[in-house]
Known about the structure:
Chain A is mainly beta. Chain A is built from no helices and 12 strands. Classes of the chains: A mainly beta, B mainly beta.
Amino acid sequence: xxxxxxxxxxxxxxxxxxxxxxxxxxxxxxxxxxxxxxxxxxxxxxxxxxxxxxxxxxxxxxxxxxxxxxxxxxxxxxxxxxxxxxxxxxxxxxxxxxxxxxxxxxxxxxxxx
Amino acid sequence: xxxxxxxxxxxxxxxxxxxxxxxxxxxxxxxxxxxxxxxxxxxxxxxxxxxxxxxxxxxxxxxxxxxxxxxxxxxxxxxxxxxxxxxxxxxxxxxxxxxxxxxxxxxxxxxxxxxx
Lengths: 113, 116
């Protein structure tokens, strides 16, 4: 079945550091890929998405590129801020299979001032 | 800005008791989801509604869990009897369209359940 694997946290970085959170997926079809973010005390919200191979999703300085050859969708940001501290979830939906959205386990990010 | 409303935010109960969670999705969103999020894990789908119909409840423990969305708007998730392993965050989400590469779910703040 479909699945998402992301790097375990917590990830702790200093402000202005470069961020990478790894995400790989397994899917039988051609999924769309997403990153959701959960700030403390809030619900999950969509950060960015990509719907086909080589697409790049971007938002709030974050980027992720859909890599079909490596089945990856790594999240990156060039210079993190304290306000980026949150839990990040990689997710996929296989529209041609069952429309079920599958989430990874989440990666907690701490940014130190 | 429209939001998904959930209540209660926190619920503490003893095992074998009944609990219920309520969700009001964003107006006009036909698809509603209930997810369970165990600490340190990602959300796992319990049930998905399209309007008032259940389209996926394959992961819902039907011996103790039930969900309804009678008028295709708000929804209730019930657990009876609650067990210790049910302690988790219960998340409600809604979406305007599913199956068209949209994939954007709008989540409520969740209901945290602690079973003693």
